[in-house]
Amino acid sequence: MTGLATTLAHALIALGSVIIALLGSIGRLARFALTALGRMVRPPWYPTQLFEQMLVIGYFSLPVVGLTALFTGSALAQQIYIGGSRFNAAATVPAVTVIGIVRELGPVLGGLMVAGRVSSAMAAEIGTMRVTEQIDALTTLRTDPFRYLVGPRIIAAVLVMPLLVLVSNALGVMGGWLLATGRLGFNSAAYLNTTAQFLKADDVISSMVKAAVFGFFIALMGCYHGYHSSGGAAGVGRATTNAVVSAFILILLSNLIITVIVFGS
Amino acid sequence: MTAKIELAGVKKRFGPKVVLNGVDLAIAPGESMVIIGGSGTGKSVMLKCILGLLTPEAGSIRVDGVSVVGLSARALAAHQARFGMLFQGGALFDSLPVWRNISFALSGPAAERRAAAIDNLARVGLGADVADLRPSELSGGMQKRVALARAIAARPEILFFDEPTTGLDPIMADVINNLIRTLVTDLKITALTITHDMASVRKIADSVAMLYEGRIVWHGPRDGIDSADNPFVDQFVHGRADGPIKMQLRKL
Lengths: 265, 252
Fold this sequence. Notes:
The complex is a heterodimer. Chain A is mainly alpha-helical.
């Protein structure tokens, strides 16, 4: 009995440690996010940094996001056609493709691709600045690292992600259209007409809201893990991995929450 | 005379590791003090506490009689604006050209800031031709000089030098030491240098303090280090393995 009680106590202690560590991490992240948000609304602002980050996050992510959407839209149309043909529902290809792309795959895959590309780069850059004392140097040069490094990245990501996802949605639908008309024998005008019928403004808006939320998490995770990196090159490597993994998880979790809120009823 | 920088009983720990264990130190205005001590004795932590980058758990730090601990964010920024710092690795911003690194803390039109950067480059013996280069295109010695130019660009009241000659060959180290001494004298700056390079100590220092196990174990004029009746200073200055300072070595 004593042995069982001891084992149970150890298990509870271990569980408690995990919960405390988890709550500690959430608290530190929330504090970082609130500090960043609080400081970015007050001057000085750095428009050059903001413009540079919009270019890095938005423009330079276009190829990878665009290709992902194009290929995914084509593959989705093919799968819907195969599945639908079993129930004489092959004609649903344009409708299901546009709903699938705009509501889910466009923003989620776009967010994941940008997270892989941008979160890691932010964590690596800011992490390297941390371990080489460049962030301390910023402070001694009368510059707040939150306003100079974190703020422009978060604002840029929140602003450009919806635009990126709009492009992603358009290319995803185009991918489906290309495959359906080129390979599955769909009439081009009929396909586009059905697509337009099923494309709702609410879907586009929810897609852009998701994108803005994903943009916030992508930049926040990159900056947070980079800012707190330590231990030289290995530490920067860990920060990069953690940034991408945590951004992925937050994107998928927030996507689920937004989907349930918007479409659940 | 009121000390420019005064530390009393400063303690700082990271988890269970006590780094500063009651540091008492006073630096007079215009004085160039050098803190010596082995690696990991808390020299850099002490500098960061004075700058307000780290907060000590106990003790007081005063600059011109004003406490550094507990300052508001705005007051802390104003406090930090009084300092210039040469970081151990230079800490130049990789993404910016040399002139923008040097003029980073300056305001005004770009042409004026560039001219000021070139003027500061001249002070550290570099020509205008390096102004548009990236830090990665410079040698280690040139990076140190550019970092020095950046540290003095805003004409701070107090300059900190963190291991200014680490990683440099002896000749370049002497060039940097001469530059530091000249700048500190010409610009009438209060300077605090941390190093374990005794050549730097002899060149830069007006006074010397030794930090060991988180405390100042000796403090005196530069010329006194060779005759200091202190076994810690004696062992450090002569670089002996035997003595009261024990290296933390693991058994094989």
